[in-house]
């Protein structure tokens, strides 16, 4: 039997057929016409001429690649008859009609989208499966409940339970203390708070396990080389809708953005800045300059004349309609957003989770000749690949006619902001550096900030984030590591005594915050901020040996930011106001919004967490002596699932040979080896070298005989079995039984686990084991023992790829059913 391989864009092909007069040509379908799978019949939309051997290219393949033509193509009207040197393997190939002068351009007279088509040389082989294509869009899955598992006091317990009630009972908004449900929640919160407080009641400052002050715990933990964190502020992407009045205007770094219920006018709130902080208003500040363009307010995504065009999950490229002209460049951030429901076409039914920021890595102009549309072709960071399928357009029946509507757009004018309000220069308490009495009793200067609630943030460098060579993804700049956070934009400067009031002296060298002063040299103007349980912040300076000490009698002024913590994790559409003295900028901004919620806001590390984690950090081996030390050190890398090491004498010194099992089955290539070599250098023992060796992969040979229950089709059950035991992920993104992350060094395979997985497939009545052994070897009692064991250097695998049977096979004999 023959199967026709048709174009993925039938609507564009129909538009091409309907052109009058005839314009571009395109491939209609392709057939494999001979038993030896070497003859191909290419049928085009219009009569063909001028296609020779140089115009035909076949790419792809796994086992068999580089397929070429055995003779010149034979043209007959709309048909092109091709004869290839050899048939391809089981994988997919791409047949392209190209311009010999430019391999990336279509053949003369052919449409750019319809000059290529995917084919499979095995299409004529008998198949028991349905030939219908599998849909790319998976079914919607309910979101995981968002719970704060670090709740430790009355307020956090109460908030957690009330928030959970609001999730489980739609419409629940009761907060009255007289309500029975609220009273019960508060009772449980009181019990939780009382139990938590009882754990910390009896304590002294002398020991880590009993200390009650945060400063004491910080210093105890530092002795154990454990860096605790003081929380972190939240970051969010904000986009602006502007008109011609704000064209080429700049939102400068440090501009205040307000998130408040009922903030009113989205941009004219200059009166609020002097009154902040105020209850119910959260302040964010931009982290970089952002140039505004009216065309970037809402950017159409090109759908290539397909009314059901969809960007699949994992996409890292798209085409934007370049009308009006766009000024996008590599390093810019766009937010891809669903604006209508692809099911009902109504804004009220859209999926608010279908919003995703992407960092552009490449921008180039393009043009769609068929629709005469100027395009801007964009690529974005691989880490920003779409986590969901995004429908771009869809047809709906409106007034008895099918009308194509835009489902998703791209938003520009995106600026990164973080939570926190910058406070003006002010003195500390005490305001002056004193001598503390006689020299023998001199006390160090330990001032306190006048306000509590200091904001902490991981340092952000916009030039590094938008670097042309290695830009940071949009998801990466939103993610902060609290242990790397420092007091946000904080510095100290000496007071200028020649000016009235508290005015910093710009000629003085500023003092900057550090995590500790152990690495500070004696003249370094650095200090440490130590926060207490009530949020108050105390400053500790050096002793002229580890960091400089301030001069006696000097007045130091502090500038810092207030904010941070979970309060900054505002929801989507919460930020709506901008504070600026630039009247033209404010007049040009029509609206301001954050399509995505702010994230990253974290409370300071709790006292219990410090007591728990600090001793464990001391027990962590920070040097590699034995081979097991090297393996455990390698496993600390987030991309390594498991490692194994062996020590060998290489003639002049000992060499540690390290074998790595990467997550998701990624290859241990040269780039990753270089990364791991740099990562492990600080653990390596002097006089020892280390090299990388490949793990020993053990292919398996498994065959199951399946009896299908009545009411099920055998072909459907077999397809479900192949999907359940895949070495990749299924259509819903779930890992298969033989996914690489399921097996690592020494992991055995139990027969009971295989049978249980097969029985879990709908329609399987019973399972009988026909083969259960290593591939290419005779059985050694594995079936009777019920397990296939692996040594410490072996990794079991059964990819089930027909192109590579040596990578392990699992097959099924399916009988019965309807």
Structural class, please?
alpha+beta
Span from first to last CA?
A: 24 Å
Given as residue ranges, the uncertain stretches (5+ residues, pLDDT < 50) are 436-441
Shape: globular
Radius of gyration: 33 Å
| Count of discrete structural domains | 6
- Tell me, rounded to a whole number, the average pLDDT: 87
- Report the strand count: 46
Largest sheet: 6 strands, antiparallel
Helix content: 10-25%
| SS strand fraction | 25-35%
Q: What's the number of helices?
A: 13
- Cross-sheet strand order for the largest sheet: 36-12-13-25-10-37
Word description of this protein:
The protein is 15% helix and 29% strand. Residues 436-441 have low confidence and may be disordered. A hairpin with a 2-residue loop joins strand 7 (93-99) and strand 8. The strands form 14 sheets. The chain has a 6-stranded antiparallel beta sheet. Strands 15-24-18-19-20-17 form a 6-stranded antiparallel beta sheet, with no helix packed on it. It is of the alpha+beta class.
What's the short story on this structure?
This protein has 818 residues and is an alpha+beta fold. The chain is 15% helix and 29% strand.
């Amino acid at each position: 039997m023959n199967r026709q391989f048709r174009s993925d864009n039938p609507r564009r092909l129909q538009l091409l057929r309907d052109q009058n007069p005839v314009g571009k040509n395109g491939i209609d379908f392709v057939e494999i016409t001979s038993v030896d799978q070497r003859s191909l019949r290419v049928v085009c939309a219009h009569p063909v001429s001028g296609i020779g051997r140089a115009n035909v290219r076949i790419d792809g393949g796994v086992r068999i690649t580089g397929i070429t033509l055995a003779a010149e193509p034979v043209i007959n009207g709309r048909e092109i008859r091709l004869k290839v040197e050899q048939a391809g393997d089981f994988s997919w190939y791409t047949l392209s009609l190209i311009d010999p002068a430019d391999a990336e351009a279509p053949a003369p007279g052919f449409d750019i989208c319809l000059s290529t088509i995917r084919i499979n040389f095995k299409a004529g082989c008998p198949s028991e499966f349905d030939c219908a294509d599998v849909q790319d869009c998976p079914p919607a899955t309910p979101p995981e409940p968002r719970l704060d598992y670090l709740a430790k006091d009355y307020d956090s317990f109460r908030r957690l339970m009330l928030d959970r009630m609001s999730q489980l009972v739609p419409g629940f908004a009761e907060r009255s203390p007289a309500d029975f449900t609220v009273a019960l929640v508060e009772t449980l919160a009181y019990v939780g708070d009382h139990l938590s407080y009882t754990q910390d009641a009896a304590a002294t400052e002398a020991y880590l396990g009993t200390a009650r002050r945060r400063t004491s715990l910080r210093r105890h933990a530092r002795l154990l080389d454990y860096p605790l964190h003081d929380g972190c502020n939240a970051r969010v992407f904000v986009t602006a809708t502007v008109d011609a009045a704000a064209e080429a205007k700049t939102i400068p770094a440090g501009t205040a953005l307000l998130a408040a219920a009922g903030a009113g006018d989205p941009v004219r709130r200059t009166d609020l800045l002097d009154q902040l902080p105020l209850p119910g208003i959260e302040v964010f500040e931009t982290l970089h300059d952002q140039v505004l363009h009216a065309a970037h307010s809402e950017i159409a995504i090109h759908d290539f004349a397909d009314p059901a065009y969809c960007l699949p999950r994992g996409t890292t490229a798209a085409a934007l309609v370049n009308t009006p002209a766009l000024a996008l460049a590599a390093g810019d951030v766009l937010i891809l957003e669903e604006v209508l429901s692809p099911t009902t076409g109504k804004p009220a039914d859209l999926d608010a989770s279908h919003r995703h920021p992407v960092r552009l890595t490449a921008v180039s102009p393009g043009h769609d000749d068929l629709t005469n549309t100027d395009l801007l072709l964009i690529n974005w960071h691989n880490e920003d690949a779409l986590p969901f399928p995004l429908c771009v357009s869809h047809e709906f029946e409106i007034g008895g006619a099918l009308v194509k509507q835009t489902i998703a757009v791209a938003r520009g004018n995106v600026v990164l902001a973080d939570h926190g309000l910058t406070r003006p220069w002010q003195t500390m308490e005490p305001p002056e550096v004193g001598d503390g009495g006689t020299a023998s009793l001199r006390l160090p200067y330990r001032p306190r900030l006048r306000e509590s609630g200091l904001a902490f943030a991981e340092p952000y460098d916009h030039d590094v984030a938008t670097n042309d060579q290695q830009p940071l993804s949009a998801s990466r700049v939103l993610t902060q590591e609290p242990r790397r956070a420092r007091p946000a934009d904080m510095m100290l400067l000496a007071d200028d005594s020649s000016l009235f009031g508290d005015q910093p002296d710009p000629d003085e060298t500023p003092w900057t915050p550090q995590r500790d002063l152990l690495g500070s040299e004696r003249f370094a103007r650095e200090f440490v901020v130590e926060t207490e349980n009530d949020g108050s912040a105390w400053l500790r300076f050096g002793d002229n040996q580890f960091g400089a000490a301030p001069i006696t009698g000097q007045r130091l002024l502090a500038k810092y930011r207030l904010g941070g913590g979970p309060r900054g994790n505002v929801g989507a559409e919460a930020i709506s106001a901008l504070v600026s003295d630039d009247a033209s900028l404010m007049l040009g901004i029509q609206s301001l919004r954050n399509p995505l919620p702010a994230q990253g806001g974290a409370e300071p590390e709790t006292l219990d967490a410090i007591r728990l984690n600090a001793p464990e950090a001391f027990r962590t081996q920070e040097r590699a002596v034995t081979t097991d030390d090297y393996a455990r050190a390698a496993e600390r890398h987030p991309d390594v699932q498991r490692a194994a090491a062996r020590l060998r004498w290489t003639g002049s010194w000992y060499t540690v040979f390290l074998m790595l099992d990467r997550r998701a089955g990624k290859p241990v290539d040269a780039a990753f080896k270089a990364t791991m070599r740099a990562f492990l250098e600080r653990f390596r023992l002097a006089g020892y070298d280390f090299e990388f060796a490949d793990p020993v992969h053990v292919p398996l040979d498994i065959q199951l005989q399946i009896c299908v229950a009545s009411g099920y089709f055998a072909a459907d059950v077999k397809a479900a079995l192949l999907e359940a035991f895949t070495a990749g992920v299924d259509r819903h993104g779930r890992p298969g039984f033989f996914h690489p992350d399921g097996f690592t060094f020494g992991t055995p395979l139990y027969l009971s686990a295989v049978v249980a997985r097969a029985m879990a497939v709908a329609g399987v009545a019973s399972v009988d084991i026909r083969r259960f052994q290593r591939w290419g070897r005779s059985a050694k009692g594995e079936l009777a023992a019920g397990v296939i064991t692996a040594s410490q250097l072996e990794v079991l695998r059964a990819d089930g790829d027909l192109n590579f049977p040596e990578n392990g096979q699992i097959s099924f004999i399916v009988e019965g059913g309807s």
